[in-house]
Amino acid sequence: MSASTLVADSVWKDIESTLNDDQLSIFSIECFPVHRLLFLFGKNIERATKIVDQRGVKRIYGEPSGRSIFQVMGESRRKEEYFCFPENYCACYSFFYDIVNRGEQLFCKHQLAARLAASVGACVDVKVSDEQLALLLSKL
Fold first, then answer.
1. CA dist., res. 97 & res. 3, Å (int)
2. Distance CA 125, CA 66 (A)
C-alpha cells in the first residue's frame, strides 16, 4: 500500500468520525477536510462531489450476507452507471486508463464518489438477495 493511499485512508476515517448522522452536507468546511481531499485527488474529488450531490451512488446489499457493491452514475450525457468497489476496482474506462495503465491517479471519480457517499451517509441503499448480487457480480 502506498503512502498516498495510507494518507487517503486516514482522511476518510477523519471524515467518518467527524460527521454526525444528521449532517449530510459535504461542503461544511468546519467539519470536512475538503482541502486535504483536493490535494490528494484533484479534479476527481470535485467530480465525485457532484455525483454525490445528485444522489448518484447506490450501495447494493446482498441479504442475508451483507456483502455489497456500489453502482455509481457517470457524468456523461448517456448517464451510464458503473459498478465499483471503492478501494479496489471500477468498471469505468478511466480506472483502467488512468489508474491501472498509467498510474496517474489513486482512484477514479466513481470510486471517490462511492467512498465519499458511504462516509457521509449519502448512499441510496438497495437490498437484494445474495443470489441476485452473485448474478450481478458475475456480469462484471
1. 22
2. 12
Name residues whose C-beta falls within 8 Å of residue 33's C-beta, 6 or more positions apart in sequence: 11, 14, 15
Per-residue pLDDT of the chain in tens (140 residues, 90 and over written 9): 566 667 777 777 776 666 654 454 444 444 556 677 788 888 888 899 899 989 999 999 999 999 999 999 987 766 799 999 988 999 999 899 888 888 778 899 999 999 989 988 899 999 999 999 999 989 88
Q: What is the dihedral of CA 61, 89, 86, 127, to 10 degrees?
A: -10
The letter for the amino acid at 54 is: Q
Report helix angle 3-18 to 109-120, nearest 10: 30
Residue 121: left (phi > 0), alpha (psi -120 to 50), or beta? left
Which residues fall within 8 angstroms of residue 102, CB to CB, at 6 or more apart?
none
